[in-house]
């Protein structure tokens, strides 16, 4: 027996969104919009940059912290780079933080503190690509822009049973989203698609009975929604080796330094490490230490980046003299939350000093770290 499917419509999704949307701190809900409240482009942009490869629960606290310290894009533009990097620490993908600052500076200096209101204008800003420009244009300015993140990809791939594997299927998916995006309420439509993927059309055990598209979904008609989206086989991640050196002086301070601005973890704070990269191993022994001290082995830590796995041998030295700063600085172990330490460095320090982060979570994010 052949099942006759309905045509998917934006109206059915928007009706669902009006009743079941998530309440998010950066979002103007349908009820708020009805009262005349307009989206704040700064909040939309900030949240979209933070949400890339990061979960909503992890982002909420960071979003609140940024808004408290820098309530406008002009405030963020005027902030010290080190302060922004420290506030970002733990969110991962640190190039986003560097681009966030550059973009804020461009909006403040070149646009009078006002974000451009078109995809093209937004895409011309530093660090803003196709996804973010479409999302901000749609959500902040109600432009009819096709927004496609991981949640939307999953919804679209199931709705149309797109069997071509990602990432090659992205252009076809974008075409489908473009055709489905309405001229009226395109921002709500984009957010509705994201909410649908996050709460109903989930990767495992989607709740198809509650989906507003269930009468139009080709994957559901095939009784196999979890088959989609089809993904190309993952390549095994290479494993890299290196060492990290945790030095503590008699005043309870730890030696830190800043990584170069470019490259992996650029501009972030670190304990000294050897020259590992995504492509080459670094030295793992104490002979590679940044300065002479009584270096003792303190175990190993593993950290997974986007394209490789890193295994660091941890070396610890106590009662180190800090007469020579060795191109770095000494910071109290009890006040590390003020430092721009990425997760891998927090892991290294915690391995050498188990109570260093007793009141501070080592990871704010699930999934991929960098």
Task: Describe what this molecule looks like in 3D.
The chain is of the alpha+beta class and 370 residues long. The protein has 2 domains: 10-227, Hypothetical protein, domain 2 (Endonuclease III, domain 1), CATH 1.10.340.30; 239-352, Nucleoside Triphosphate Pyrophosphohydrolase (Alpha-Beta Complex). The protein contains 14 helices and 6 strands. It has helices spanning 10-20, 30-34, 41-51, 56-69, 73-78, 81-88, 95-110, 119-123, 130-141, 150-159, 170-180, 186-199, 218-221, 343-352; strands at residues 239-247, 253-258, 269-270, 296-304, 309-317, 329-332. The chain has a 3-stranded mixed β-sheet, with helices on one face. Helix 1 crosses helix 12 and helix 3 packs antiparallel against helix 9 (130-141). The protein is globular.
Main attributes of the structure:
single chain, 370 residues, alpha+beta, Endonuclease III, domain 1, Nucleoside Triphosphate Pyrophosphohydrolase, three-stranded mixed beta sheet, three-stranded antiparallel beta sheet, 37% helix, globular, iron-sulfur, HhH_base_excis_C, MutY_C
Short description:
This is Adenine DNA glycosylase. The protein has 370 residues and is an alpha+beta fold.
Number of domains: 2
Question: What portion of the residues fall into strands of 2 or more residues?
Answer: 5-15%
- The helix-strand sequence is HHHHHHHHHHHHHEEEEEEH
Main sheet properties? 3 strands, mixed
CATH C-level category of the largest domain: Mainly Alpha
How much helix is in the residues? 25-40%
The CATH superfamily of the largest domain is Hypothetical protein, domain 2
Strand order across the largest sheet: 1-5-4
How far the N terminus sits from the C terminus, by CA atoms, comes to 50 Å
Radius of gyration, CA atoms, in whole angstroms: 24 Å
The poorly predicted ranges are: 360-370
User: What is the CATH architecture descriptor of the largest domain?
Assistant: Orthogonal Bundle
Number of helices: 14
Number of strands: 6
Which structural class best describes the helix and strand composition?
alpha+beta
CATH fold assignment of the largest domain:
Endonuclease III, domain 1
